[in-house]
Amino acid sequence: MQLKQISVFLENKSGRLSRVTQILKEANIDILALCVADSNEYGIVRMIVDKPAKAMEELEKSKFTVSLTNVIGVTIPDSAGGLATVIDLLAKQNISMEYIYAFTSRKIGEAIIILRVEDTQSAIEILTDHHVKLITHNEIIRE
Amino acid sequence: MSVPKQYLDPEIECSSADEMRQIQSERLKHMVKHAYENVPLYKERMKDMGVSPDDIHSIDDLHKLPFTVKDDLRNTYPFGMFAVPKEELVRIHASSGTTGKQTVVGYTKNDIEVWSRSVARALTSIGTTKSDYVHVSYGYGLFTGGLGLHYGAEYLGATAIPVSSGNTKRQVQILQDYGSNILCCTPSYAMYIGETAREMGIDTKQLPLRAGFFGAEPWTEHMRQELEAILNIKAYDIYGLSEIAGPGVAFECPAQQGMHINEDFFYPEIIDPDTEEVLPDGEFGELVFTCIGKEALPLIRYRTRDICKLERGTCSCGRTLVKMCKPKGRTDDMLIIRGINVFPSQIEAVLLSLNMDPNYQIVVDRANNMDRLEVQVEMTASMFQDTLKSLTEIERKIAAALQSILNISAKVRLLEPKSIPRSEGKAKRVIDNRHLQ
Ligand SMILES: [Zn+2]
Question: What is the residue-averaged pLDDT of chain B?
Fold first, then answer.
């Protein structure tokens, strides 16, 4: 019930991010979601792609520092304050959140929230117990 | 099979301090007279200082003599400092001057003998015998590495295999087919040979290779462990420079704790590079050599620019020959940051102590009359986790180690892999922007 996210270390120099997307494009890898976290000097690009292992291989070949991270993808419950409910659930159980971002899956037609928490396994149990829908890799890949 | 000899020249290598000083004093007197009479530069310089060969009675008078620097050789290029007529010369070598003119060195028949004997002592020290094959993968040519080890092996009566460098697969084939016992080359090339053997599916444990001398470039204790593991050998350091002779000026013994200097031929001193004052044993300073056993190029107090310290006493191997540590840097590389001496090799050691790859660059500049040091470190996959806080933590860890080990405060900056420019495999470690306006 976890998604594989690709994280790439980038210096804050112009052209680096586009180099990453270029490499993936040439390898025919589809980027489903992308978000950047940065400081003054460097940043981390986080991506959900259709072929994570291949993406990692291609980027390493081009001398990028890459890691594969387990994250959780959930669809927001269809009610007011849906996102707050999810965050609240985890906070109450003392699951600390590293980061969070959202994207819209055309295939599912809904907003998907990506969560990176310290204790992934417990978070999955809590969310499942409370009937939050977890997304699998196959559900979001475009055909 | 005979029991391997421990020493080639036991009476020299294990002599008492008094015996050694006597040999050195005699040779110094003789060589100073020879240099004074045959090298115009020395006659002039000694006259300027008001010193004549008659003022030199023992090795204790060495401090009265002038220094020699690399530029002296450059300015007298090619043969201006040779002290013998052409017909006495039997060999020429030259250093690959990466900056400026190359320096040319010459040898008489006796000089080759002195050098070869120095190398043979080194080879004997690590257990090489007449029945061994010595595989020389240093380059042959103007560079002293190849022929230096080659003649040393022959002097000892071992069999030299002059493979030279390059064609690494063939190197591995020869190691296997001829059954080479001792490997001599640069440490980085040895590593490459090891990796190539592995790629070729050859188990180095099955090879008769048991030891190697590696020199001509700086290497670390960490690299020694890697080399010993990948080639399944004992890896020893060997030191030398063409101006003094070539490899074999100093060599590691089985103790692997510093290199014994062939001090009956090459007399070492450690000086403060700024004041030129001689420093006591155990203190770091610039290594200086006087060639007391050579004829063609009898250099007096030659400044090597290597930063080093000396250690006297009887080594666990039984030798009394003075020991030098692995040079910890070059005077050219020495950085003075807010009054503290810093060598790139020390930064490297700090990174290794944190289990990080030593791919780094040091950038110094000055703002508001204060030196600012930035240490840039290339990220590797093993260091990388995908949160900003883990990256900040890496920077904090490196900065804290630099502070506690070297007592310098530095800004640490993480770089993408391979972003530090490398030329011929060597990275430029220091960028000093303080002199630029
Ligand atoms: Zn020893």
Answer: 92
- Number of domains into which chain A is organized: 2
Which pLDDT score, from 0 to 100, does residue B436 have? 47
Residue B390 at interface with chain A, using a CB cutoff of 8 Å: no
B391 to A99: CB separation less than 8 angstroms, yes or no: no
Say how many Å lie between the CA of residue A135 and the centre of ligand 1: 66
Q: How far is the alpha carbon of B363 from chain A, nearest alpha carbon, in Å?
A: 15
> Which of A24, A54, A69 represents a domain boundary (last residue)?
A69
Give the nearest partner residue to A39 out of B388, B415, B419, using CB atoms. B388
Range of the domain at B292: 10-16+76-330
pTM: predicted TM-score of the whole model, two decimal places: 0.70
Do A47 and A81 reside in the same domain of the chain? no
| Residue B266 maps to a domain | yes
CATH code of the domain in which B349 resides: 3.30.300.30
SS3 per-residue string spanning chain B: CCCCCCCCCHHHHCCCHHHHHHHHHHHHHHHHHHHHHHCHHHHHHHHHHCCCHHHCCCHHHHHHCCCECHHHHHHCCCCCCCCCCHHHEEEEEECCCCCCCCCEEEEEHHHHHHHHHHHHHHHHHCCCCCCCEEEECCCCCCCHHHHHHHHHHHHHCCEEECCCCCCHHHHHHHHHHHHCCEEEECHHHHHHHHHHHHHCCCCHHHCCCCEEEEECCCCCHHHHHHHHHHHCCEEEEEEECCCCCCEEEEEECCCCCCEEECCCCEEEEEECCCCCCECCCCCCEEEEEEECCCCCCCCCCEEEEEEECEECCCCCCCCCCCEECCCCEECCCCEEECCEEECHHHHHHHHHHCCCCCCEEEEEEEECCEEEEEEEEECCCCCCCCCHHHHHHHHHHHHHHHHHHHCCCCEEEEECCCCCCEECCEECCEEECCCCC
Q: Do A11 and B416 touch (CB under 8 A)?
A: yes
ipTM of the complex: 0.84
pLDDT tens digits, A51-68 = 999 999 999 999 899 999
User: A89 and A51 in one domain?
Assistant: no
Q: Please tell me whether residues B297 and B363 are part of one structural domain.
A: no
Distance from CA of B382 to the nearest CA of A (A): 9
Q: Which residues of B touch A46 (CB under 8 A)?
A: 386
pLDDT in tens, B213-260: 999 888 888 889 999 999 999 999 999 999 999 999 999 999 999 999
Q: Are residues A65 and A123 in the same domain?
A: no
Ligand 1 centre to CA of A123 (Å) is: 61
Q: How high is the pLDDT of residue B398? A: 95
pLDDT of B138? 94
With respect to residue B247, please indicate whether it lies within any of the assigned structural domains: yes
- Min Cα–Cα distance to chain B from A70, Å: 10
Range of the domain at A7: 3-69
Chain B contact set for A42 (CB, 8 A): 391, 414
Q: What is the average per-residue pLDDT within B360-373? A: 85
Q: Are residues B132 and B102 in the same domain?
A: yes
Same domain, A63 and A87: no
Instruction: Summarize pLDDT for B141-199 with one digit per residue, the tens.
Output: 999 999 999 999 999 999 999 999 889 999 999 999 999 999 999 998 999 999 999 99
